[in-house]
Amino acid sequence: MLKLTPNWQFTIVSLIVGLANIGLPSMAQAAQLWNFQYSGNSSVPVVASGTLITSDLDPINNTYTITSITGTRTVGDVTQQIVGLLPAFEFGGSDNLLYAGEPLLSISGFSYKVEGDESVNLYSNSTLGFPGYSEQDSQGRYGIDFSFAATRVVVPEPLSVGGIVVVGAIALSMNRKRKYSI
Length: 182
What we know:
- The protein is α+β, with helices and mostly antiparallel strands.
- The chain has a domain at 28-153.
- Helices cover 23% and strands 40% of the residues.
- The chain contains two helices and nine strands.
- A hairpin with a 3-residue loop joins strand 6 and strand 7 (118-124).
- Helix 1 (6-23) packs antiparallel against helix 2 (158-181).
């Protein structure tokens, strides 16, 4: 019977786990993560930031569909938790699309709800012939000339991690063989 040392056991287990990961579909491709922030003035200063989750890029329309949002919105000196994305067209005519190029939003933009049952819509002014973005909320506040930025967060896919484990195990094994042969 073949007796495996702990080092070989580690190598074999790493190889099996790595090969299993290669055969599994990657869930990281199904959604994209974005950090966003925007700011401007309505009757008081408004700042919001957090995370958007979108679908993969629609190459025909060059858009991502926003499927989820988390973060905070500060109006004056009151900070509110963002509690969720509103369905498209529920408030402010939003389409919940994020464009791959400038402007990042359409004239419909995206809408979300904050604690206190308040709805908020952020959208682009570009089709109206104005620069920047605007925000309106269900409390009757409306502001123009907002800045908005969204930066994609790169998350390593599970296949990459599995591949690193396999390569590391093989390298470790080869290194040990070389030490014993000298």
